[in-house]
Automatic annotation (TrEMBL):
GO terms for cellular component: cytosol. One of its GO terms (biological process) is peptide metabolic process. Its EC number is 3.4.11.4. This is Peptidase T. The keyword Hydrolase applies. It comes from Catenibacillus scindens. It catalyses: Release of the N-terminal residue from a tripeptide. The active site is at 80, 172 (proton acceptor). InterPro entries: ArgE/DapE_CS, Bact_exopeptidase_dim_dom, Peptidase_M20, Peptidase_M20_dimer, Peptidase_M20B. It comes from the Bacteria. Pfam families: M20_dimer, Peptidase_M20. Keywords: Aminopeptidase, Hydrolase, Metal-binding, Metalloprotease, Protease, Zinc. PANTHER family: PEPTIDASE T. Residues 205-307 form the Peptidase M20 dimerisation domain.
Amino acid sequence: MDILERFSKYIAFETTSSEESDTTPSTRCQLDLARYLVDELKKIGVEKVTLDRHGIVYGWITATAGYEDKKALGFISHMDTSPAASGKNVKINVIKDYDGKDVTLPGGVTLTVRDFPHLKSLAGRTLVTSDGTTLLGADDKAGIAEIVTAVEKVLSEKIPHGPLCIAFTPDEEVGRGADHFDVGLFGADFAYTVDGGPENELACETFNAASAHIKIHGVSVHPGDAKDVMVNAGLVACELAAMLPPSETPRYTQGYEGFYHLDAICGDVSQASMSYIIRDHDRNIFENRKNTVREVVNALNEKYGQGTVELTIEDSYYNMKEIVDHHPHLMENAKAVMEELGMTPDVIPVRGGTDGSRLSYMGLPCPNLGTGGYAYHGPMEHITREGMELASAVVVGLIKKYAL
């Protein structure tokens, strides 16, 4: 099946995950795509395809005769799309022979070269977007399409290969993609997630990540009698935010620079709540950032009274580079495959996380490959047919490389 046709079938499924849900998967609609993928994998010849009770699709392919001693290689993508934008009733918009200039989508959103300078480099390709009223879903249905297309090619063309392991997870976008992943059942010695940006992107570095949840208890009295009595929870929240380094927020950071990100805030005089995400590539600096938040909270409790501010910090994932560095062949082989395909590998630190962040620390070293997509999580998300084809070719190339 043509990769664009396959991708268009996947994005027709609504698979938005939910941060509020306490079920697994977080939304039942993800299971619709999961069941479709089970059937598709079986049709193209993948063996022992299963959908487990947590909504994870697993599939295995026995090694070609004579290649049984090769290392088991895995490929993983996620089925859910971000709750940051609607993923319902996605309408695909295909622009053949794109001219590399500003383009207005049917829903009125305009992709501009000013905002997305890389658009110039996509001239001559087939540009794929939504209609501009929803996200597209390339994150990460493009990754799924690329893996399935690669596997179909390997099987139909009888390309020699070692043991292959395939998995598609739910809830990656809400940080739960690896919560129930069974590394032992999966059986791969190492794997690649296909969940990045441009098709030549290659990453083995992610943030160390934590979430900080803050509750502020105020004292609400009549403003006329408030002298030395009132504690305005809303103002304490503002004070807390101002006590963190103002230049260390996402707006002012890039590359390896970490940050404190105020993700949500609400409240009034009597109660307020805040949610922060804390990120840094360096583990020591990451720990220092968490301590800084604790120190700010302690200072406010000394000022307004113990118990005024409650803080809970939870680690989310760690920089997978600490694990992947012990398996240099993973990066070396991916670079070699890209170069053989005429691509220039772009080895970057991911300013976020992937399922591979968690999986690497669960015993499955797992760097991340690009899908060819851009501007994820919003209505300006876009990808190209050619980018998907190259990303799929990288998967095929790795399968061949690990069979040598």
